[in-house]
UniProtKB/TrEMBL annotation:
SUPFAM superfamilies: NAD(P)-binding Rossmann-fold domains. This is NAD-dependent epimerase/dehydratase family protein. Residues 4-254 form the NAD-dependent epimerase/dehydratase domain. InterPro entries: Epimerase_deHydtase, NAD(P)-bd_dom_sf. Keywords: Carbohydrate metabolism, NADP.
């Protein structure tokens, strides 16, 4: 067994790689802009107080190949498989985020559409056991009101009209899912999609939701938080390490019962989020923008399908926030080389 993780030193990808190192599963890490130091730091800080685990992680790091890869270039993608024989599973996370897509639609389509199709072709051409890719809750549109009851948790088979969308990113994810199911039906391959909500944690460095890092990392470091929406805005949140665990479990399970899965998470208002942080950092300072009543995201997603499939329930919101705050503080205290 050997994994390829694309976008493997990004916000979620780095956590997937660390998780694979902890499982002692061989991994090839590919990214357009490799941040190897950041990925290593996550792993080493996590195990800094356990010399045995630290040595084992270092051994896994030393055996890992890191590759610069543009997934929009099919020749480059194919070469990864030719030059690294034995890859059996892929977790595909190489994608341009919403703001990047809107700034450059040509590049967005090259990476997010052509790049995804290139990966689907690799599943066929190299007879992979499974490809799991990141879809998004944005396929459900920009407003929970499209589903009627504000307390309704959206299920995987619920439909959203294009008229209810805001992000080009979300529509691209819809096309990815549609195309993937063509490959499954016509080529007999194993592909699965997960639809994360807002993924929070320390270390998010790009994208239109940097506040999903700042809301807890800033208070951890004694800084003010400015959230670009009302304190009453409701969203669904999940901790980054839990998403990584979900990706790997879904990739490893021999047989899957479905194609698409909601990741789940905790549906809370920004005010509830603030109070969760303040239970850990009592002097946290927040500012809200009350002229923006909500984010352009749905509020609740049902995760029962995925929980049943992989037998895993994400940690509580408070436990996730506590983990983020601890990591942010440890990172700052880490001696510089």
């Amino acid at each position: 067994m050997k994994f390829l993780v694309t976008g493997g030193t990004g916000f979620i990808g780095a956590r997937v790689v660390v998780n694979l190192w902890e499982r002692k599963i061989p991994v090839v890490v590919a990214d357009l802009n490799l941040n190897i130091a950041w990925t290593k730091q996550i792993a080493l800080l996590k195990h800094q107080h356990d010399p045995v685990a630290l040595a084992e992680i270092q051994e896994q790091i030393d055996q890992t190949r890191f590759i610069n890869l543009d997934v929009a270039n099919k020749t480059q993608v194919n070469d990864v498989f030719l030059e690294n024989p034995g890859i059996t599973h892929v977790i595909h996370l190489a994608y341009l985020m919403s703001a990047e897509v809107e700034a450059d639609h040509h590049r967005g389509a090259s990476v997010n559409i052509v790049g995804m199709i290139n990966m689907f072709d690799m599943v066929v051409d190299h007879q992979l056991t499974r490809l799991v890719f990141a879809s998004s809750e944005t396929i459900y549109g920009a407003n929970h009101s499209a589903y009627g009851d504000e307390n309704y948790a959206i299920k995987e088979d619920d439909f959203c009209s294009l008229d209810d969308h805001f992000y080009t990113y979300g529509v691209m994810k819809m096309l990815n899912e549609f195309t993937a199911q063509k490959y499954i039906k016509n080529k007999g391959v194993s592909i699965a999609a997960m639809r994360p909500p807002i993924v929070y944690g320390d270390g998010r460095m790009r994208g239109s939701v940097l506040w999903a890092c700042e809301f807890a990392t800033n208070p951890a470091l004694g800084k003010k938080v400015s959230l670009p929406f009302s304190k009453d805005a409701r969203d669904c949140w999940i901790y980054v390490d839990d998403v990584a665990e979900q990706f790997i479990r879904l990739a490893l399970k021999p047989t899957l019962h479905h194609f698409a899965y909601n990741n789940g998470g905790h549906s809370v208002t920004a005010d509830e989020l603030m109070h969760t942080v303040r239970r850990i950092v009592p002097d946290a300072v927040y500012e809200f923008n009350e002229s923006v009543p909500r984010t352009a995201l749905v509020d609740r997603c049902d995760s029962s399908r995925l929980e049943e499939e992989i037998d895993f329930i994400p940690r509580s919101l408070e436990d996730g926030v506590r983990a983020q705050i601890e990591e942010a503080r440890n990172r700052v205290l880490q001696p510089k080389d």
